[in-house]
Write a structure and sequence with these properties.
This protein is α/β, with parallel strands linked by helices. It contains six helices and nine strands; from the N terminus they run βαβαβαβαβαβαβββ. The chain has a five-stranded parallel sheet with strand order 3-2-1-4-5. The chain has a four-stranded antiparallel sheet with strand order 7-6-9-8, with helices on one face. The chain starts with a strand and ends with a strand.
Length: about 220
């Protein structure tokens, strides 16, 4: 089975990528939607250019799809790009967005390929604990909700910090998996990669939200 993985570089994309590998499928490309406008109905915006480093580390071709993020146009732009690939299907890390899942399935049907969403409706807490216990190095690259401050930016989740994140999520009533946009992530290492990415950068805080701005990426092969 030849598949393309839709990847933002974050935790859910990484988990979906690993799922495809565990099934023995050939991941022929990582496909990243790059939003050139101010917002998107479906796709992550910050830090997606870093997927190129993940792809290079894994020796997998990387396809960047530029789109303004206009509703319905962004899925059309993705469809046009995927039509050039020789694949049997796409794999995505969609968790609970019916809007996203339905549009990906309809697009795949038009292309005559399959659409797999292996994380669909997983338990939020079990999903996060599974990532950490299986060795995914999940770095928080942006935060934008009550309960998460500047200290979380650039932090890689461990069992200890995940337990703290779970407490914060319960206290401030946000989604512990960040599915509501409370935070974004970058996976710098894990079982799906032959090494890891050493990241240098700094936190940029803007009152009640912030981002981790990456200044240097160094691939390290195991």
């Amino acid at each position: 089975m030849r598949v393309a993985v839709l990847s933002s570089g974050g935790k859910d994309s990484a988990a979906a990528w690993w799922w495809a590998q565990c099934r023995g499928w050939e991941v022929t490309a990582l496909v990243t939607v790059n939003i050139t406008g101010d917002d998107s109905w479906m796709f992550q915006i910050p830090g997606t250019h870093l997927v190129e480093h993940q792809a290079n580390l894994a020796n997998v071709p990387w396809l960047q799809v530029n789109t303004k993020g206009v509703q319905e146009e962004e899925i059309s732009d993705l469809e046009a790009a995927l039509s050039s690939l020789k694949i049997d299907g796409i794999v995505s890390g969609a968790l609970r967005s019916d809007y996203q899942k339905v549009r990906l399935e309809r697009m795949a049907e038009r292309l005559g390929i399959h659409s797999w969403t292996p994380l669909w409706h997983q338990s939020s807490i079990e999903h996060m604990r599974g990532l950490v216990s299986n060795g995914f190095e999940v770095m928080l690259t942006s935060v934008s909700c009550d309960g998460l401050d500047e200290s979380w930016l650039g932090q890689i989740l461990t069992e200890k910090s995940l337990a703290k994140l779970e407490q914060k999520a319960e206290q401030f009533r946000f989604n512990v998996d960040g599915e509501g946009g409370e935070y974004e992530t970058l996976v710098v290492g894990g079982p799906h990669l032959p090494g890891r990415l050493d990241i240098e950068g700094q936190a940029v805080w803007k009152g009640n939200r912030g981002t981790f701005e990456c200044s240097k990426v160094v691939p390290v092969i195991r």
